[in-house]
Amino acid sequence: MIRGGRLVPKGGRLGRHSDEMIDGTICVVDGCSLRLIGAITSWGAQNKMSLSKQALGLARGPTLADASWERGMAVLPGAVRRTYPANATIAGEYQARSSILIMTAGWAAFAKTLPNGSRLIVDFALPREIAIIEFAGEAGETVTALSDVTAIELAGPVRTCFSRFPQSICEAILVAQATRYARLAEHLAGASRRGAVERTAHLLLELACRAHRSATSYPDRFACPLNQAELADALGLSAVHVSRVLKTLRETGLASFRNGVVELHDHAGLIETAGFDRSYISS
What we know:
CATH topology of the largest domain: Jelly Rolls
Strand order of the largest sheet: 1-2-3-4
Number of domains: 3
Oligomer: single chain
């Protein structure tokens, strides 16, 4: 229940405001974005007011690109440094496990294996990203290291974070979870509604943005540890089909993928071909 909630008419716009939950949790609404700021019932009125002002300011904290984040994550309660060699299983399907990985190096893949043995890669985890390994019940995905991975592991589940970690860490974890949902929606749209060339261009642009970690620009090239079979599993295509698509992208001067390096030759043309809108990964 919310103390001091607001009624917004149908078609009305949600402005920026904060409400206090009965348990003392502050939630901030900015447009359609909701942020939970944690329970503060044990704080005095002055501290509560200070936190409310900070929440309403919606100031961004340090990003995972900052070196201070890795140091800060490493000293959190229960934090453990993990190392996984390429092709190692980080979490197995149907394995009851909940953890939060702060990727410091390497790429990992989240994949679903079907009864007939075919595999679909549904998402990736890249350096300086938070990977959440938490599935409903025992069914889930297999998380595999695509290259040598180092990470800081925090014990889950996510719902207990607010009682264990600082506000900025909790917010980063929630943003990572929301961003993953956005990526999954794009991947589903690509596999079901985009043509082979369009979905391949879209995925290459997404990986470029995530590897480059820029909200405004695209790299000319980036290292990508995927092989052709893994790229096919991520696109829902056969390896032969992917080979043909990559040839098309190369011959049209849009992009090329050779020897573990993706080159984006024509940013504007690639964006137009894919119908790419980077807002879902630029938050």
